[in-house]
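Task 17 of the worksheet. Students: predict the tertiary structure of the chain below and write it out as structure tokens. Keep your answer in the requested format; marks are given for formatting as well as content.
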Amino acid sequence: MRDAVIAALPADIAVMVAAVADWRVASASGNKIKKQPGEAPPPLLLTENPDILKTVGHHAKRPKLVVGFAAETQNVAENGRSKLERKGADYIVANDVSPHTGIMGGDRNTVKVIGKSGDEDWPEMDKQAVAERLGKLIASHFS
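Model answer:
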């Protein structure tokens, strides 16, 4: 996916909404790993996937506007602000996806839009309304 995104540059806007897994199996077995009586399961070793948002945010052909997302379960504002800076984004749309929020798989969302010049707490709204409001924010960046 990273290669396809880089191939699409340059671009005016990058809205990085796809959540590629942070981790993948370090080395996949070519065969089924069979259970052995009395043996513990083999360790599952993970390695980090490429960070596509960070790659785009710091790329030589960086888009004029980079928007990323942060699904958090704690310290939403602090983690979102840290992500904004590390990834080279202009905005991070952060939300609390803890199980009690019902956001994952639900129809509604409450987001905090974190920008270089400040944060906005958006009220709870359906996800379509979040997308429309984000579209208006992006358009205002270019007007």
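Marker's comment: DSSP finds four helices and nine strands in the chain. The mean pLDDT is 91.
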